[in-house]
Amino acid sequence: MAEGTHVHGEQVGAVHAPIRTYLIVWGWLFVLSALAYFVDIAHVGGWLKAVLLTVLALMKAGLIVAFFMHLRFERLALVYAILAPLILLVALAVGVVPDGLAVLMRR
Amino acid sequence: MATETTAHPVEQAVSWGGGVSPFGVSWQKLMMWIFVLSDAFIFGSFLVSYATTRTSIGTWVDTGKVFALHIAGAEIPLLLIAIMTFILVSSSGTMALAVANAYERKKRETIRYLMLTMFLGLTFVGCQVYEWTHLIVDYGVRPWWNPFGPPQFGAYFFTLTGFHGLHVLSGVVYLGVIARQVARGVYDRRGSYANVEIAGLYWHFVDLVWVFIFTMFYLF
User: Fold this and answer.
1) Residues of B in contact with A93 (CB under 8 A)
2) pLDDT in tens, A69-92
3) ipTM given for this complex
4) Vertex B38 angle, CA B36 and B42, to 5°
5) Residue of chain A whose Cα is closest to the Cα of B102
6) Closest CB from B24, B41, B78 relative to A37
7) CA spacing 20 to 30 A to B220: which of B30, B44, B102, B201?
8) Chain A residue nearest residue B58, CA to CA
9) CA-closest candidate to residue A25, choices B96, B121, B205
10) Do A62 and A82 belong to one domain?
């Protein structure tokens, strides 16, 4: 890139969410956090707790990444470049499941 | 479709064929995303390691009791952590407002929300200092021993919350630098408040990590 042509970020025509959207997302983050807390103190057991907590955590993560981190408003190429590598983390988690299951079965 | 002739045209409708700017963002923002992604792998590995260890031990520590607060004689489980979560989510909201005001180049509002975010971040770290002191001094928790259950609890507690707390503390310093530059008019002269948005990426990521630590380490 030629000297002097570099930009500092604010792109022409970039889409931003209005402040109202941020406030709504913020409200939802409180609600979802509170729900997760009540799932714990209400002593919801076993698999149901695991499913509920996972769903709530992923919903919160989605809201943060999509709106607060603006990924929803970025070009699809960037969205894929960021989200696709995370498959490796899922693979890591899945990779250790057999070990965990083996231990659980033995008990 | 209108064709833009600026150095970095962003055509939201076009997803591929980016020319000189394939991702449609500045290199600074792209660098922050790459950092965030690599950091996600660090925390992800920590959490998978923690989950594996905990599963293979079979028993764990009742975190609801360990992190309970006693108010008027009643024991409220995990209250301290619930308060810390509330503080960090609040700080993410104020950070979002700082970025939203930075887009509109409102200097005073941007500084105000950045300062508020820093204050909430410091409050969070303060809670953590209280938590660590309580566990280390009152209960004698060490990375290799604790009175509650499996010894690995201490190691994972200090690693996960310590690493995260360090991120929050670094974030406060980072936001301080950015706020100072906003105050000095650096971004007005440059004609761009983009650095505020990039700092926001980091701050929201720290909140994002807490979502998973909160869920996997404390609630589960």
Assistant:
1) 48, 51
2) 999 999 899 999 999 999 999 999
3) 0.88
4) 110
5) A10
6) B78
7) B201
8) A104
9) B96
10) no
